[in-house]
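Suppose a classmate hands you a notebook page containing two proteins, each written out with its sequence and a corresponding row of structure tokens. How would you begin to make sense of it? This section walks through that situation. The first entry is reproduced here exactly as it would appear on such a page.
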Amino acid sequence: MNLPPNPELSLYQLVLETLASPESLTITPVTLKSLVTATFDLLIDQNISATIWVKPQGEGWHREIKPA
């Protein structure tokens, strides 16, 4: 990594300068559901307490994400 000419820049500024613009990623609803399910499974398996905000369309997911 090349150091910037200005050593007074904060770490945040350095990261902003080196990050490329993120590319958008289009996924199907099935893939999104799979990713969310995998995240839930990981949190449960690792006993990680988390707050997850979701707003899926329709009622199908509502039943699945209700806390037990």
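The notebook's second entry, a different protein, reads as follows.
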Amino acid sequence: MSALTNHPVQAYIDDASALIDCIVEDDSLLSKLKTFRISGSRSSDQTLVPTLDPTLKKLNDLVNGFRDLSALLEEGNFGGPSAMEEEKIEEEKSSHRSSHRSSHSPLQQNHAMEDDSDDSSNASSNASSNDSNEETFSVVIIGASASGLGVASALLSASPDLDIKILERSSCVGSSFLSWPPFTRFISPSFYSNPFGPNDLNQITPDENGPQTHSQSQHPTGAEYASYLQTLSRTKKFNNRTLESYISFNTHVSSVTSLPYAGSSAFKISMDSGASICSRYVIYAGGEYVHPFSPLPLKAKSPNASVHYSEISDWKVYSDCVKKFCGTVVIVGGGEAGFDAALHVLDEAGDPNDGDEAGLKPRVILIDRGSGSGEGADSGGAGKVDDPSTTLTPITRARVEEARKKYRNLFQIEEGCECTEIGEEVSETGRKVFLAKYRSSRTNRVTTVSSEAPVILATGFNLSQSKTCCLNGICDWDESGRPVLTQDCDEVERTKGVFVVGPMVKHNEEVIFCFIYKFRCRFALVAGEILSRLIAEYHSVQTNSDGTVVVDEEGHKKLDMVERTCRFYQEKGMLITDLSCAVCGDVEGSC
């Protein structure tokens, strides 16, 4: 054996002893293997059928080592190794030895190793130490609302035994929808149509009744939609487990950090409570609503002079501003939220008497950078499709036109104007007054308007500007504050193994998945990608020179389940893999 001391086969011979020790300690391990053969190559008749059980995965690795040893013996390749080969030998020996010395998962074993990953993966310095009590999952989903439950359902539909965990910062499912103003409703209509083919536009699974059936409302309120999600989480089951049983409530994720893991991804998910768990893959489904965007220039002079639309707890302040004090409400932002707020205040103030609006100051002034129809300066154009992600929806357009006719001068829309400053002062009567300055893009004229209530900011949401978003540090952002993702599977470009689902997904300038009927078309895509990687890792019997992987019999069964699930989503119009189809609006056929 001395001739083999420094040869690659020595690593496998050493591992033979390690495997024997492992089986001596627990002889049931050997009986769990469907096939145990040592022959000259990894051909199809030497199939191993391990499960996703990490211990069996380690044994599978050792058996593959024996096959390599057998091949080397047959070839008679006993030449001395080069320096590079010797280094590889040590790496292989270290990897194989560590795999049978721990009863923990491969993830936990690698977690305890020295952290030598590069900075681009944001592996923090303290990520190298691991508490052996940390739970480990194949997939952790951050957020238990529409996108979180939707992608969880896709994963479990294709792999009911998959070990997943859903982390929800609040005490209930769909909490962001419960935070909606009571007057706000879905602009995408819900309708009962499942028996006839298409799903309810706001439905998140292809095989359940949608929110219209649940709430009997074509345009559900936030509370009604949250109730639909809660019912779904309690009734939808996988292997007799409800979706709700996978959720940990009141769990706020503070950070996600990469861990060293050979050849693949692994992460530590830390919570505000100080607890942490580990996962092979992470899906961010936390949405945008808890990350409101308030432009710093507008907050700089007087932080309390304005309030974001999503943070208003008492809308009565604004209706009273008009009804009791005959004041004006100022709104910055001409998208769906801005017009929704404006129309609510106008309606609450009551119908104007004929001619009353002529000599009165406006009840609502809405400052809009676009055309007054929720459109940006660069939207529209010949041959361009009106995407409701960038323009007002038909139902809102109709409401705005009706309000303009009804309220006339009481509803003032400042089109093509940019708000530049917001402040406050005390009036001659001793009342606090809130001021907003805006500049016209056409005339460059600066105008100041006043309000008896804080200025409403309907300026959208931005994860990149949020101090509490756990993607910060592991994700790059585009100019609009959206995560930079791969187009093929919505994976964070900067950190392999982290995926994003929900309204913040965007590709190029034309493909924006901000509505439920849009972003649900990526649930099965993300689920299929993650499951395919797990199957390739745990059921691999051969890696070809081109990088493709040959899997065992059990792996083929699992892949078939994934493919059937994706086909079902596609048949129901809930899967888009070709982004060009999203531009043209086609979700059938090759898309």
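A careful reader of the second entry would note: The longest helix spans residues 54-75.
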